[in-house]
Amino acid sequence: MAHHVLILAAGQGLRLKSTTPKQFLELHSLPIIMHSMKAFFIADPKSKIYVALPQGYVEKWSRLCIDHEFDVNHETYIGGSTRQESVYLGLNKIYNSLGESSKKH
Questions:
Q1: What's the rounded Cα separation, in Å, for the pair 46 and 41?
Q2: Is the separation of the CB atoms in 91 and 99 below 8 Å?
Q3: What span, in angstroms and rounded, lies between the C-alpha atoms of 13 and 60?
Q4: Is 14 helix (H, G, I), strand (E, B) or coil?
Q5: CB of 52 within 8 A of CB of 10?
Q6: Which residues, listed in sequence order, are joined to residue 53 by a DSSP beta bridge?
Q7: Which of 37, 74, 76, 73 is nearest to 56 (CA)?
Q8: Is residue 34 predicted with pLDDT exceeding 70?
Q9: Strands 26-27 and 30-31, bridge-based pairing
Q10: Listed residue (17, 38, 42) closest to 27, CA to CA
Q11: What is the pTM of this model?
């Protein structure tokens, strides 16, 4: 059985009052979101990781992965305007990635 992980990183971090959303701030020279992804990967290297990103951060995310030589396998998607919507979109992405034999109605 495959494990699927949703990393919800589509928030703007408005309470922090920073121009950079908190998930992209660096902690020990690595964006916080990458620490989270590494933890899930270490716990289960075969898990399928999906990352919800804010609109407009897809290119920045790609650049961060290159700059930090980040190679944890994952898929990205644009998150929603709320956490609930980001979860819904992520669950749909997982469902759509499953083969027909895995989809049980």
A1: 7
A2: no
A3: 16
A4: helix
A5: yes
A6: 78
A7: 76
A8: yes
A9: antiparallel
A10: 38
A11: 0.86
Contact 52, 8 (CB under 8 A): yes
DSSP code for 25: S
Q: Cα 2 to chain center, whole Å?
A: 17
Quick one: which of 10, 7, 91, 87 has its CA closest to 51? 7
* Residue keyed to tokens 């609930």: 84
Count the neighbouring beta carbons within 10 Å of the beta carbon of residue 13: 16
Q: Is the pLDDT of residue 105 over 60?
A: no
Amino acid residing at 49: I
- DSSP label at residue 56: T
Average pLDDT for 68-82: 95
4/37 Cα distance (integer angstroms): 12
